[in-house]
Structure to design on (236 residues):
């Protein structure tokens, strides 16, 4: 049975949200304007969204270590505050292209009063120091939900492989040798990017979610799966 609400109801609902919900307006703006560097405009997230991965990274880096963690595309902060529970002594920074998300993160931070958490609005890691982070989490960012629509054979009207490759190259610059890069729900494979040779895979996880993959030519890779999720930066 088609449970979709009638078009007019959906339209009225959308107009109501545009008029009343600052947050909805902001994501809609990102979808329409597509600012330079944007990947996934949707800010869906939830607390402790990746318990297997967070637990694995904790087992690799140690729960009590005073490490530095970056959450790239942190949305409204759930990922950062979840990571805090796995890494009580870490310095954790969250960055997101959407300044409305960062405003929510900062409000939460005022309530949490945690001096070792920080947030910044940014579209890339270009302002982050070199060889600095022990772990970078990039979860559900290097993708676009509309690429899962049937009949989508190319991605470059929404995302370009070269932008993905540039993003992961800069993640590598910011990671210490031996640091961990965590990429989940990406439309591209790390090992297709030139920077991929700088990493080895530590954890592979099958996923029920259908995130189609696209190659360096921006064409769909039919029938391919890429469970590789946690990578270690090899020594130089
Ligand atoms: C689907 S949410 C993922 C949130 C969280 N990482 C998670 O997995 O629950 C994607 C987020 O990536 C952000 N984003 C998209 N492109 C970005 C970019 N170039 N730089 C920083 N953040 C970006 C969006 O604003 C959005 O908040």
């Amino acid at each position: 049975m088609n449970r979709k609400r009638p078009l007019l109801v959906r339209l009225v609902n959308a107009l109501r949200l545009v008029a009343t919900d600052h947050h909805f307006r902001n994501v809609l703006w990102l979808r329409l304007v597509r600012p330079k560097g944007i990947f996934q405009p949707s800010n869906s997230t939830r607390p402790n969204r990746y318990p297997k991965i967070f637990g694995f990274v904790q087992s690799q880096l140690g729960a009590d270590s005073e490490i530095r963690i970056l959450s790239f595309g942190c949305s409204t902060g759930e990922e950062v505050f979840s990571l805090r529970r796995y890494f009580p002594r870490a310095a954790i920074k969250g960055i997101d292209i959407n300044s409305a998300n960062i405003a929510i993160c900062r409000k939460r931070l005022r309530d949490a009063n945690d001096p070792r958490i920080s947030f910044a609005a940014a579209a890339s890691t270009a302002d982050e120091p070199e060889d600095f982070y022990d772990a970078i989490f990039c979860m559900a960012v290097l993708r676009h939900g509309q690429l899962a629509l049937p009949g989508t054979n190319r991605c470059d009207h929404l995302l370009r492989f070269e932008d993905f490759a540039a993003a992961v190259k800069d993640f590598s610059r910011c990671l210490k040798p031996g640091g961990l890069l965590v990429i989940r729900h990406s439309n591209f494979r790390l090992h297709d990017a030139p920077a991929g040779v700088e990493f080895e895979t530590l954890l592979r996880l099958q996923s029920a979610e259908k995130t189609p993959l696209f190659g360096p030519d921006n064409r769909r890779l039919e029938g391919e799966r890429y469970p590789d999720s946690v990578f270690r930066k090899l020594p130089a």
